[in-house]
C-alpha cells in the first residue's frame, strides 16, 4: 500500500461510497430486445458469408465474409480446408488465396510477388477470428496471399506474408516450418481455448 | 514489469459486487493500473488523474459488473483503456489544461513522492513500451497487455474486445516483427 493508494481509496469511499452500497444489488438485465437488436445489426453489417464444415463436426472449417466496406475476412479452423476455401474464394471472384505452410509440402517454390502492385492493407478491425484484407488495391489477375500454418497446440494461424499481392500460378502449398521462419516463441504463449 | 495479480484466499471469499468486493478489486489492481499509466506519462499529476478517473468510473459502474463476462482485472483494464483514450482526445482538443484546473485534487507532497517512485520503477516498462512503437496500435496493445501487464490472452482479448483467436494472431504477428527488427523480444 502507499500514500496515494490509500488516499485515493479514502476519496472513493467518501465521494462514491453510498453509490457503491446502493448499487450492490446486481441489476437484472433485459435479455431479448437488446440482444436481438445487436444480432440484427450484426447480420445487416455483413454482405455475404461463406461457411464450410469439416472434421470438427458442426464447427465451420473455414469462413469467408465480405463486408460492406469492401474488405474480406478469411478464417480457417483446419489446414485441410484450405482447398475448399480457395475454391470458394475463386468462385466468388475474391482475389485472395490461402496457402498452407507445412514441412510436408512437396512444392519448394515461393510464389512470385508483384512488385509493381501496392501493398495490400491488412487489419482485423472487425474483431473476427481471422485475417481481414482490403482487396480493392489488388491488380486484376493478382491475388493476396494468406499463409496458414499450425502451431504446436494444433491451432491454425493465419498470417499475411509480405505486403504485396502475388501473381502467376497459385501454389497448392508452401514448404517450410515455423522454426525456419524465425518466429519467436514466448514462454508465456497462451494456452489455446477450444 | 509483469505485475502479480494473485488474490489471497481471504480476498477470494468476498462476495462479488459488494463494497468489500470492490475494495479487493481496488487493492489487487491498483499497482497494475498505475503502472499502465506510468508507461504512458511521466508527470505524477497526470498518472494520478488517470488512475483516479479509472477507479471513479469503476466504482460508479461496479453494480453492473458481471463476473461471468470476465475477470475484474480485465474489466478494469477495459475502463483504463477508455480513460486513456478520452484523455488523449481531450489533450488533442486542448481542453486538458481546463480539465486539470477544474477537476483535479492537488497531490500532497508524499503522494507526489509515492507516484514519482512508481513512475521511476516503471522505467524499464516504459522502455519496453517504446520498443513497441513500430507496431500498429492493435498489435502494440496486444503485446502490452500480455507481455508487459501479464494478462492471459483470453483476458487481454476481452479488454480489447476481440476474440482470443484474433488476439493470438496479433501477438504472433507482433512478436515476429519485434524479433525481426530487434533481434529478440524480451519484455
Which secondary-structure class do the elements of chain B indicate? mainly alpha
Q: How many angstroms does the end-to-end distance of chain A come to?
A: 39 Å
Q: Strands across the major sheet of chain A, in which order?
A: 1-2-3-7-6
Question: Low-confidence segments of chain A, ≥5 residues, pLDDT <50?
Answer: 25-47, 124-128, 178-194
Shape of chain B: globular
Largest sheet of chain B: none
Low-confidence stretches of chain B: 1-16, 96-103
Largest sheet of chain A: 5 strands, antiparallel
Put simply, the count of helices of chain A is 3
Account of the protein in words:
- The complex is a heterodimer of chains A (194) and B (187).
- Chain A has three helices and eleven strands.
- Chain A has helices at residues 3-22, 32-44, 82-91, and strands at 48-53, 60-66, 71-76, 96-102, 112-113, 122-123, 131-134, 144-150, 156-160, 166-167, 174-175.
- In chain A, strands 1-2-3-7-6 form a five-stranded antiparallel sheet, covered by helices on one side. Chain A has a four-stranded mixed sheet with strand order 9-8-4-11, covered by helices on one side.
- In chain A, strand 6 and strand 7 form a beta hairpin.
- Chain B has helices spanning 9-12, 19-38, 44-61, 72-92, 96-103, 109-121, 123-131, 137-148, 153-160, 164-182.
- The chains are: A alpha+beta (194), B mainly alpha (187).
- Chains A and B meet through helix 1 and strand 9 of A and helix 2, helix 3, helix 6, helix 8 and helix 10 of B.
Amino acid at each position: 500500500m502507499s500514500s496515494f493508494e490509500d488516499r485515493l481509496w479514502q476519496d472513493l469511499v467518501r465521494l462514491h461510497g453510498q453509490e457503491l452500497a446502493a448499487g450492490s444489488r446486481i441489476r437484472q438485465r433485459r435479455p431479448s430486445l437488446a440482444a436481438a437488436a445487436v444480432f440484427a445489426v450484426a447480420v445487416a453489417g455483413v454482405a455475404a458469408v461463406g461457411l464450410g464444415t469439416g472434421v470438427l463436426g458442426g464447427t465451420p472449417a473455414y469462413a469467408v465474409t465480405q463486408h460492406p466496406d469492401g474488405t474480406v475476412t478469411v478464417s480457417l479452423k483446419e489446414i485441410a480446408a484450405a482447398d475448399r476455401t480457395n475454391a470458394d474464394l475463386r468462385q466468388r471472384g475474391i482475389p485472395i488465396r490461402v496457402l498452407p505452410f507445412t514441412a510436408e509440402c512437396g512444392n519448394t517454390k515461393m510464389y512470385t510477388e508483384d512488385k509493381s502492385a501496392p501493398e495490400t492493407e491488412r487489419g482485423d478491425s472487425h474483431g473476427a477470428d481471422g485475417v481481414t484484407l482490403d482487396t480493392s488495391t489488388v491488380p486484376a489477375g493478382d491475388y493476396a496471399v494468406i499463409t496458414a500454418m499450425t502451431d504446436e497446440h494444433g491451432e491454425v494461424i493465419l498470417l499475411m506474408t509480405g505486403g504485396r499481392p502475388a501473381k502467376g500460378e497459385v501454389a497448392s502449398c508452401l514448404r517450410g516450418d515455423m522454426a525456419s521462419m524465425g518466429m519467436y516463441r514466448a514462454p508465456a504463449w497462451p494456452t489455446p481455448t477450444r | 514489469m509483469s505485475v502479480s495479480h494473485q488474490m489471497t484466499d481471504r480476498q477470494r471469499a468476498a462476495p462479488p459486487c459488494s463494497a468489500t468486493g470492490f475494495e479487493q478489486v481496488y487493492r489487487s489492481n491498483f499497482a497494475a493500473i498505475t503502472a499502465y499509466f506510468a508507461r504512458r506519462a511521466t508527470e505524477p499529476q497526470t498518472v494520478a488523474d488517470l488512475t483516479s478517473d479509472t477507479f471513479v468510473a469503476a466504482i460508479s459502474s461496479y453494480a453492473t459488473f458481471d463476473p461471468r463476462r470476465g475477470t475484474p482485472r480485465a474489466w478494469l483494464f477495459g475502463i483504463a483503456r477508455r480513460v486513456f483514450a478520452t484523455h488523449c482526445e481531450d489533450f488533442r482538443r486542448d481542453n486538458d489544461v481546463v480539465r486539470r484546473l477544474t477537476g483535479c485534487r492537488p497531490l500532497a507532497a508524499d503522494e507526489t513522492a509515492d507516484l514519482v517512485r512508481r513512475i521511476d520503477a516503471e522505467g524499464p516498462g516504459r522502455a519496453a513500451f517504446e520498443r513497441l512503437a513500430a507496431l500498429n496500435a492493435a498489435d502494440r496493445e496486444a503485446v502490452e497487455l500480455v507481455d508487459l501487464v501479464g494478462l492471459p490472452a483470453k483476458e487481454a482479448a476481452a479488454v480489447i474486445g476481440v476474440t482470443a483467436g484474433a488476439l493470438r494472431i496479433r501477438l504472433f504477428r507482433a512478436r515476429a516483427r519485434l524479433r525481426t527488427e530487434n533481434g529478440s523480444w524480451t519484455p
